[in-house]
Design brief:
Helices cover 48% and strands 19% of the residues. The protein is α/β, with parallel strands linked by helices. It has an eight-stranded mixed sheet with strand order 3-2-1-4-7-6-8-5, sandwiched between helices. Helix 6 crosses helix 10 and helix 9 packs parallel to helix 11.
């Protein structure tokens, strides 16, 4: 069993946080559970304190001001102490065996840097879930949402974490940008044999907007789409450049070591 650090960004999530924490506590692979309070004004911090007093795996980090989920996830990842990172939003929950399946997959496939879990979209409007194309778009979204992701910390750091551009705070999509870079550089496999993480519907959720646009029920804002693509492309290009620098440095270091060995 490979221990996993779970990062939970939290902004005014008192209504759902206990459910998310309980689902994390039931995962034996969860060796560390970090809640990053992103400037909440409700009782989120008190809820973390309550559970933390009963479970030493649970800890709280407090952001000085609300900076958005991407910034909170990245701050939490900096404090993670284990090789594998898992991200789950404070209004989602893991299902039984979720992290065991992810840990097993990454142990059996050491060359894979990450794995996705299949998502159960709970209580979403019937107008969406009843659509003939819902399942196909649900699978696509499962390849993107942070709550489906378990990733090796080294790969996460190499990609630079989730992009923190202000445009993503306004329109969403930092998870899509991260997924694009992850898929393009390393691959993005998903365990689709069972639902292992549950996303609960609430009004205004980004996933609803995604489904409505993908299913042709809502017209996208052209300017927002252009911004999302532009900033996502910038993130991909930056990640590729950074990883190429690491590869070049490694090759240079190897060549230098070979020359030193030959000289001796």
């Amino acid at each position: 069993m490979t221990p996993i650090s779970i990062i939970i960004p939290c902004y005014n999530s008192a209504a759902t946080l206990a459910r998310a924490l309980q689902s994390c506590r039931l995962q034996p692979e969860a060796a560390q559970i970090i809640v990053v309070d992103d400037g909440s004004t409700d009782t989120s911090a008190e809820i973390v304190g309550y559970y933390g007093s009963r479970d030493p795996r649970i800890g709280l980090l407090t952001m000085p001001v609300n900076g958005g989920a991407a910034r909170a996830r990245n701050w939490g990842a900096l404090h993670a102490t284990h090789e594998l990172l898992a991200f789950i939003d404070a209004d989602d929950e893991y299902l039984s065996g979720a992290l065991a399946a992810a840990s097993s997959f990454l142990t059996r496939h050491p060359r894979e840097v990450s794995v996705r879990l299949d998502v159960d979209y709970c209580d979403f409007p019937a107008e969406l879930t009843g659509h003939a194309d819902f399942a196909a778009h649900a699978a696509t979204l499962s390849n993107t949402v942070p709550s489906s992701l378990i990733i090796r910390r080294a790969a996460y750091n190499a990609l630079g974490g989730f992009p923190m551009d202000d445009a993503f705070r306004r329109i969403g999509g930092e998870d899509g940008a991260f997924s694009w870079a992850l898929r393009a550089i390393f691959g993005n496999p998903r365990l689709d044999d069972a639902k292992r993480v549950r996303m609960h519907y609430h009004a205004g959720i980004h996933a609803e907007r995604y489904f409505r646009i993908a299913l042709g029920l809502q017209a996208p804002d052209a300017a927002d789409m252009a911004d999302a693509f532009r900033y996502s492309r910038q993130f991909l290009d930056s990640a590729r450049a950074g990883i190429e620098q690491l590869r070049s440095a490694n090759l240079f270091a190897g060549a230098a070591a070979d020359e030193a060995s030959a000289a001796s």
